[in-house]
Design brief:
Creatine Amidinohydrolase; six-stranded mixed sheet; 19 strands
């Protein structure tokens, strides 16, 4: 099996780069298996340096020596870091990066343009005397698009906890509870189920607040016959899930029921199109056209979905502008919606994995 770092080295060679400075923490975790913050990974042709400060130095030493290495056998192969050296940055992490780049005679050093801020860029560039500092776009993210078996297993676990949380929500929601109280209950619940935490700030929207795609959960109390939208994600060992369901407190008005069925059928149509080799824009188009055909095309304004993994929003974007094709191992959300300002909104979101012959809805147990 080819390790992630070996695949990355091939990309760097094709891009004529002597090295890559990785600053995006999910990418560092993906390449090494070590989870931290405020650290850097310097990858050269022959060596790999994990650069950190005193807060993480001993922890990193222990991890990479295998003392507390909890990676599975497969993960140890994929996250091969043989020869990796942990560097304590001392007073200046930027000076350490520059020193290592100089010692390695890196003439063309790439950096992650989307995660290195302007101040960091100028500080490092000033210290690099003989290296050209070259921006790159989503080099590691491209590797992360297709999930390995171990990654999929963790995503499935994150999904299963989110499913249990939404089933729990059905039992506790009642008039008089506030949106923020429901969030508090769900946050407590998922941690007891083994989650590290939420993968994003849980959204609980009630009544007219459901018309806002990313409503900021507040103190509004649920009322009888309210529409209630819950968007929840779970972080399990670094991997994320993202599910949404729309509930009703009492009898569902015919107008709301009609739109709910439109959204549901749009999602079913999109999911039925998913298999390897399908253009992603066609998946988005199938749901969007169905909603438009029933008169609500102007009320579904966001993409149909997004990839999930080490981040809750990652490649691939399931959008009308994405002409790439699906591959077995991709995992993403399918979340059609209709939002009627000042009235209500309906969103149904599931997590889907592309298989060799079709797709698997990872959250299928939710509606049983």
């Amino acid at each position: 099996m080819t390790s992630r770092l070996e695949r990355l080295h091939i990309i760097l060679q094709k891009s004529h780069l002597d090295g890559l400075l990785v600053s995006h923490q999910p990418n560092i975790s993906y390449l090494t298996g070590f989870k931290s913050s405020d650290s850097y990974l310097l990858i050269t042709e022959k060596k790999v340096f994990f650069i950190t400060d005193s807060r993480f130095y001993q922890q990193a030493i222990s991890f990479f020596e295998g003392v507390k290495n909890k990676l599975s056998k497969a993960e140890k192969t994929y996250c091969s870091v043989e020869g990796l050296k942990v560097e304590l940055s001392g007073r200046s992490v930027f000076a350490t990066i520059a020193k290592l780049a100089g010692a390695g005679r890196l003439k063309r050093l790439g950096f992650e343009a989307r995660s290195l801020d302007v101040a960091q860029y100028y500080r490092i560039k000033k210290l690099l005397r003989k290296s050209h500092f070259i921006p790159t776009q989503e080099v590691v993210e491209d590797l992360r698009r297709v999930k390995e078996a171990g990654e999929l297993s963790k995503i499935k676990k994150a999904v299963s906890i989110a499913v249990r949380a939404l089933k729990y929500a059905r039992k506790i929601i009642r008039p008089g509870l506030s949106e923020i109280e429901i969030v508090a209950e769900l946050e407590r619940f998922i941690r007891y189920q083994g989650a590290r935490g939420s993968s994003f700030e849980t959204i609980v929207a009630s009544g007219e607040n459901t018309a806002f795609p990313h409503h900021l959960t507040g103190k509004r109390k649920l009322k009888k016959c309210d529409c209630l939208l819950i968007d929840i994600g779970v972080d399990y060992d670094g991997y994320k899930s993202d599910l949404t369901r729309t509930f009703f407190l009492g009898k569902i008005p015919s107008k709301i029921s009609k739109i709910y069925q439109i959204v549901l059928q749009a999602q079913i149509q999109a999911i039925n199109k998913i298999k390897p080799g399908v253009r992603i824009c066609e998946i988005d188009r199938s749901a969007r056209q169905y909603i438009a055909k029933h008169g609500y095309g102007g009320f579904f304004a966001h993409n149909l979905g997004h990839g999930i993994g080490l981040e809750v929003h990652e490649q691939p974007a399931i959008s009308a502008n994405n002409n790439a094709t699906t591959e077995a191992g991709m995992v993403f959300t399918v979340e059609p919606a209709v939002y009627l300002k000042g009235r209500f909104g309906i969103r149904i979101e599931d997590d889907v994995a592309v298989t060799r012959s079709g797709c698997e809805v990872l959250s299928s147990d939710l509606d049983k």
